[in-house]
Structures are given as structure tokens and as C-alpha cells.
Specification:
With 385 residues, the chain is of the alpha+beta class. Strands 1-2-3-4-6-5 form a 6-stranded antiparallel sheet. The protein has a 3-stranded antiparallel sheet with strand order 7-8-9.
């Protein structure tokens, strides 16, 4: 770990601990309303991420208990789709969780810096996130805060992070008594705004928003503060933009306001795996332009301009590149020098004849991950016979 890497993750503040559970803290990965995530080095030299809950929340015994429950639930999720939990405990009265550290760039940062994803990469990311949701739902969890900031484009494929914590927040009266919705503005489903029961269909809806954002560079409901986004979710018609098949149809189904009519994450995975292929190399190496415009709260018609990164409510300001959230335990938010490169892609620009490898390799990885997620669907059914 060099000094430059520490600088990119953020230096420790004067009041930060210097060690947690025998792990030396190297820098800050991110901070949010509930806690701070640190980059740390274990005694064997391995880099890990440690999420430390703020003291004010740690004083709520109910919240601390739910946090422990969520850590236990996170251990049940297949490690191929998220950051594996390595340990947890309490330091100076504050709960913490240790996860593997996964270098990569968030989908939010990728789109903010380089624009919408090219079709082949978009298909792979959509498939990878659907596989992750399939595994998360199979473990009996609902993410509740799926957004571009919580999808890490790692060298092993997309990883979905920071699930379970939103559930702990959602059930804590100390954090919801002000009547505020838990999660990030715009990355809710309509039933969450209405206060209806939360089911896996919530994650499917936000998967649709996320794929539209990745494919067009903007949120299908535009951007705005919490009240504006809540109104649009209830009254506006989403504008997912022009997406390649089959994503256009799948996203339209995922954004159905009726959760009963949305496909499951497993159905999305099956549809995407059946159509995954290595597309032809694009004619241009430049980034795809990000369309401007936000739907009007009442009609959904485009009005105004702005960076879609503002919809990622890590700061809630809606300005500039998204800041690192406390849930970013598995990523390095270093600004990349080029677009996200898939596993095995060389740092140098390939010749034209080799360009399709940037699609073949990640799709191969994602198909393997998809097969693992499919096992979560098929094996329990076989054992039940």
C-alpha cells in the first residue's frame, strides 16, 4: 500500500482510531450517516475494509443488535457477488464489520467520468448485478439500497456491496422517527415511498433504474431532492432511454409500478444469460455521450440538465462526482485513468483486432458467476424432491 493509494482513499482524521481488532488503519474509504469505512492492513499484510458504526448509533441497543443480525445474514450470501465478511465485533463500544477489500471503481464513478457503458459491457454489468441479487435474495435478504455507488466494477466482475445495513436502518425507530425514507433519493421503488411491505421486487425495480442509468448516463426519473424523486416515482412515467435488446424489454418490466408484475432477479438472470454473447468491437473508442434532461415531477417530460451522478445520494447535494459512502467497504474510489477494464484487459490500448477481448473476457467471467447464481435457484428445488 503506497502513500498515493492512501491519499486516494482519504487520510485518517485526527479523531479516527489507528487500530481496530489488531488491524492497522491506513486511510478512509468513505463516510456516511451511520459510520465510517476504513482501509486497513491485517497482521499478515492483507488489506481489508472495516466499517465502524458511529458512537451515537452504537448507543442504541436495538440498532446494535440488528447490526449484528445483518452481519450474520451477510455471511450467508455467496462471496462471488459481494465483499466477503471476514469478522465483526465491538471496539470501544462501537460495532464494526471487517470485509475483504476489493479494488475497483464504482459504477457511479465510471459513468460520471466516462459516460454511458457500451452495449457489451452494459449487458455484462446487468447480468452480474442480476446474479448478485439472485444470490442475495436466495439468502433471505433484500438489499434496499441498490444504486451505482454500491456496484463495484472489479477485476472479477461486478460486486454488489452494502446490503443489509439499509435493513438495520429501516427498522431503527431512532433513525426513522423523522419520517424520512431510508436509502438514497431516486433509488427507491414506489412501494417504499407508499410505506408498503418491502420485498425482493424492490431490488428488481432499482435494478431497472440502475441499468437505465448505466446505459444512458442518466436516471430514468431524472435527479432531484428526496421529495422531488418520491413524487416522480409515484406520478411520473420513467424514461429509460434507448437500450439494446433484450435490456430494453427487461428494464421496462422491472420498472413496472406494480411489484407483482415485475420479474424476479432469477428471471432476469436467465433471460440475460440466454442472450449473452461477445458483440462486435465498437466503431469508436470514445465514451458514449450522456443525454441531458430530467423528467418533470408531474409528467416525466425532460426538463433541465445535470449530472446523473447527483442521483447517487452519497452526499445528497446532487452536484459533482459522488462522494464515497459509508457502505463502500469493498472499493477503492481512485479516479481511473481510463474506462473500466475487464479481467485480463491490458492497460495499454489494444489493436483493433483485439478489441473484442474486452467483451469476451468479462462476459466469460459473468457467465461463470451466473452459473453459480443459477445453482442457488436449481439446487434447492432438486433437494426438495
Amino acid at each position: 500500500m503506497n502513500a498515493d493509494a492512501v491519499e486516494r482513499t482519504g487520510r485518517l482524521h485526527p479523531g479516527d482510531p489507528r487500530e481496530i481488532a489488531g488491524h492497522t488503519l491506513l486511510g478512509r474509504i468513505g463516510e456516511g450517516g451511520m459510520g465510517t469505512v476504513y482501509l486497513a492492513r491485517s497482521h499478515d499484510g492483507r488489506r481489508v475494509a472495516i466499517k465502524l458504526i458511529k458512537a451515537a448509533h452504537a448507543m442504541d441497543a436495538g440498532f446494535a443488535a440488528r447490526f449484528r443480525d445483518e452481519v450474520a445474514s451477510a455471511r450467508r450470501v455467496a462471496s462471488f457477488c459481494t465483499a466477503r465478511v471476514l469478522g465483526d465485533g465491538v471496539a470501544d463500544g462501537r460495532p464494526y464489520m471487517i470485509t475483504e477489500y476489493i479494488p475497483g471503481v464504482s459504477l457511479a464513478r465510471q459513468v460520471s467520468d466516462f459516460g454511458a457503458l457500451e452495449p457489451g459491457t452494459l449487458h455484462g454489468v446487468a447480468l452480474g448485478v442480476a446474479a448478485a441479487l439472485t444470490a442475495i435474495h436466495a439468502a433471505g435478504l433484500v438489499h434496499r439500497d441498490l444504486k451505482p455507488a454500491n456496484v463495484i466494477l472489479s477485476m472479477s466482475g461486478p460486486r454488489v456491496i452494502d446490503f443489509g445495513i439499509a435493513r438495520a436502518l429501516d427498522s431503527s425507530h431512532a433513525l426513522t422517527r423523522a419520517g424520512q425514507l431510508v436509502g438514497s433519493p431516486g433509488w427507491w421503488a414506489p412501494e417504499q415511498v407508499r410505506g408498503l411491505p418491502v420485498t425482493p421486487a424492490v431490488d428488481v425495480f432499482t435494478w431497472g433504474c440502475l441499468v437505465a442509468y448505466a446505459g444512458t448516463g442518466r436516471h430514468p426519473y431524472g435527479e432531484g431532492d428526496a421529495l422531488t424523486m418520491a413524487a416522480r416515482l409515484l406520478h411520473a412515467t420513467p424514461d429509460p432511454g434507448r437500450l439494446p435488446a433484450p435490456l430494453d424489454g427487461l428494464v421496462a418490466r422491472a420498472l413496472d409500478p406494480d411489484p407483482a408484475r415485475r420479474p424476479s432477479a432469477g428471471e432476469l438472470l436467465l433471460a440475460l444469460a440466454a442472450t449473452a454473447e461477445a458483440p462486435a468491437a465498437p466503431p469508436s473508442e470514445g465514451p458514449v455521450a450522456r443525454p441531458a434532461g430530467n423528467p418533470d415531477p408531474g409528467t416525466g417530460s425532460p426538463t433541465g440538465t445535470g449530472s446523473p451522478a447527483g442521483a447517487d445520494a452519497r452526499t445528497g447535494t446532487g452536484t459533482g462526482p459522488p462522494a464515497s459512502p459509508a457502505g463502500a467497504e469493498a472499493r477503492a474510489e481512485a479516479a481511473p485513468t481510463g474506462g473500466w477494464r475487464p479481467p485480463g484487459d491490458p492497460a495499454v490500448r489494444p489493436e483493433a483486432g483485439d478489441r473484442r477481448w474486452r467483451y469476451v473476457l468479462p462476459l466469460a467471467v459473468l457467465l461463470i458467476l451466473g452459473a453459480a447464481a443459477l445453482g442457488l435457484l436449481v439446487i434447492p428445488a432438486l433437494l426438495a424432491r
